[in-house]
Specification:
Blueprint lengths: L3 E2 L2 H6 L5 E2 L11 E8 L5 E2 L4 E6 L5 E13 L5 E6 L2 E9 H6 L6 E5 L6 E5 L2 E3 L5 E6 L3 E7 L18
Parallel strand pairs: 6-9
Antiparallel strand pairs: 1-4, 2-3, 3-5, 6-8, 7-13, 8-12, 9-11, 10-13
Length: 168
């Protein structure tokens, strides 16, 4: 609250707020707190203080980007093998624009958790491990088909044995 004094005609014509001098935030990377002078007409005076404290919160510009990632397996039982269809999914991320600009597809990990799954074919929702401050908005498709089978036993291979020939 600011108390102003001056001619009644001037005070009645003022809006319900008092402006400050412009606050410069050029190149600011962190939140700012500063004392800023008030601006009032020449015939008006501020009664107690001519400054206010201004808090400026600096937030990153948010953006979204789409990445393609190959689906990996986690938690697959020993002795089992899995195939997934499709093998690639599209991941839509949202986060600070500067961070998304520096992000590579290798920085994402797309996987299906197969813990507790046995032999068979299943629809499983992929999960994405994204960097901090980045949010997964969408995964396309939302689920993938996973087929779990036993690893086939190795096929025996015949190796001819060399025969020794006696030397005279």
């Amino acid at each position: 609250t600011v108390t102003l004094a001056g001619p009644t005609s001037v005070l009645n014509s003022l809006p319900s707020f008092v402006k400050t001098l412009p606050v410069t935030i050029t190149n600011a990377a962190n939140d700012l707190t500063m004392r800023v002078p008030l601006t009032v007409p020449n015939s008006v005076v501020v009664v107690e203080t001519n400054f206010v404290t201004v808090n400026v919160e600096i937030l990153p510009i948010l953006s979204s980007r789409s990445f393609t990632g190959s689906v990996e397996f986690q938690g697959l039982r020993s002795g089992y093998q899995a195939t997934v269809s499709p093998q690639m999914v599209e991941v839509v991320l949202e986060g600070p624009e500067t961070q998304l600009d520096e992000l590579n597809p290798e920085d994402l990990r797309v996987y299906v958790n197969l813990s507790g799954y046995g032999l068979g074919t299943y629809r499983v929702d992929p999960l994405v491990l994204a960097p901090p401050n980045v949010r997964v908005v969408n995964i396309i498709p939302e689920s993938v088909e996973v087929r779990i089978e036993l690893i086939p036993p190795p096929t025996p291979v015949s190796i001819p044995l060399a025969t020794a020939t006696p030397q005279p």
